[in-house]
Amino acid sequence: MTSVRPATEQDYQERLRRVLLHIDQHRAAPLCLDDLAAVACLSPFHFHRIFRAYVGEPVGRYVQRIRLETAAVQLQTTQRSVTDIALDAGYESAAGFSRAFEERFGMAPTECRKTHQLSLQVRTASLQPSQPNAMIAPEIRERPDTRVAFVRHVGPYAAVGAAWARICGFAAAHQLFGPTTAMIGIGWDDPKLTAEDRIRYDACLTVNEKFVPSREVSVQTIPGGRYAVFLHAGPYHQLITTYDAIFRDWLPRSGEQLREQPAFELYLNSPDRTPPADLRTEIWVPLQ
C-alpha cells in the first residue's frame, strides 16, 4: 500500500494542475464546480475537498480571486471600460463587479484606475534614464504557437529556483535538452496585487509534439501571434522595473492593444554561468 501512495498523490497534483491551467485560460467563461471536476476527472463530491486541500482555498474563492486580480491589472494597464472588464471577469453587470472588487481591494474600480494613474506620475518622475534598464523601443515580432513542458511554482517569484531545478532535472534525465531548447518563464500574477504565497509562475522548456506529459511535468501551448519584444539587461530581481516601464510608459504611447494572455520571459543566458549584471532576458508582450 505505501508504495502506491506517492504515485496517487502525484496523479492528483497533475489533475489539479490541469484545472488551474483551465481556469487561467477560461476566466471569462462560466466555471462551475461540475465542469472543473470533469477537467480533473474527479467526482464533484470529492473535487472541491481535494482542490481545497491541495490549493489552500475553496475553488469558488480561487476563481473569484484570479478574476478580480486580472481585472485589476486591466484597469491599471488598459483604457477598457469597467463594464467590458467586468464581463471578461465573468460578472453579469458592472455593479456586481464593482461590489466584489471593492470588497477585495478596498476601493472601487474607478478609484483603482485613478489612484494608479496618480502614482504613475510620481514613479515616472523619479525614473533614472541612465540606469541599464531604461526603456528602449521594442521589436515587433511574429511567432508560432510554442509547445512547452512546465513545472508550476506557487509562491514568491524569488523562490522559483526550485521549479527550475525540477524541470531541468527531469529534462536532463529524459534527454530533452537540444540545441534549440529554450527556457521560458510565465508569471501569471502581479506581485503588487497577489499575496506572495499565491503567486503563480511556470518554469518552461520548449518541447516537440512527441513529448508526453508525466506526473512530474505538464504541457501547455504558448499562443503564437504578434509580440512586442523588450530586452532586459541585468539581474532578474530588477525585471519588475522593466515591466513597470513597459506597461506604464511604453504601452499608453504605443497605440497597441494587449491580448488576453500573460507576457512571458525568454532567458538568453544562464544564471549558473553568468554574473547577474550580464544576464539578458527577452520580455515578450502579446499584442492584438
Put the structure in a nutshell.
Pfam families: GyrI-like, HTH_18. This protein has helices at about 5-25, 35-40, 45-55, 60-75, 80-90, 95-105, 110-125, 160-175, 240-255; strands spanning about 140-145, 145-155, 185, 200-205, 220, 225-235, 265, 280-285.
Biggest β-sheet: strands ordered side by side in the sheet: 1-6-8-7-3-4-2-5
CATH architecture of the largest domain: Alpha-Beta Barrel
Contiguous uncertain segments of 5+ residues: 1-7, 117-134
Count the helices. How many? 9
> Which structural class fits the helix and strand makeup?
alpha+beta
Question: What's the N-to-C terminus distance?
Answer: 52 Å
Query: What is the approximate shape?
Result: globular
Query: Can you tell me the number of structural domains?
Result: 2
The CATH top-level class label of the largest domain: Alpha Beta
CATH H-level superfamily of the largest domain: Regulatory factor, effector binding domain
CATH topology of the largest domain: Multidrug-efflux Transporter 1 Regulator Bmrr, Chain A
- Reading the helices and strands in chain order gives HHHHHHHEEHEEEEHEE
Helix content: 40-55%
Gyration radius, in Å: 20 Å
Largest sheet: 8 strands, antiparallel
Count of extended strands: 8
User: On the 0-100 scale, what is the average pLDDT?
Assistant: 84
Model description:
By secondary structure, the chain is α+β, with helices and mostly antiparallel strands. It has 2 domains: 5-122, Homeodomain-like (Arc Repressor Mutant, subunit A, Orthogonal Bundle), CATH 1.10.10.60; 139-287, Regulatory factor, effector binding domain (Multidrug-efflux Transporter 1 Regulator Bmrr, Chain A), CATH 3.20.80.10. The chain is 43% helix and 18% strand. The protein contains 9 helices and 8 strands. It has helices at 5-25, 33-39, 44-55, 59-77, 82-88, 94-105, 109-125, 161-173, 239-254, and strands spanning 139-143, 146-154, 183-187, 200-206, 218-222, 225-233, 264-267, 280-287. Strands 1-6-8-7-3-4-2-5 form an 8-stranded antiparallel sheet, sandwiched between helices. The model is unreliable at 1-7 and 117-134 (pLDDT under 50). Keywords: DNA-binding, Transcription, Transcription regulation. This is Transcriptional regulator, AraC family. InterPro entries: AraC_E-bd, GyrI-like, Homeodomain-like_sf, HTH_AraC, HTH_AraC-typ_CS, Reg_factor_effector_dom_sf, SmbC-like, Tscrpt_reg_AraC-type_HTH. Pfam families: GyrI-like, HTH_18. Residues 17-115 form the HTH araC/xylS-type domain.
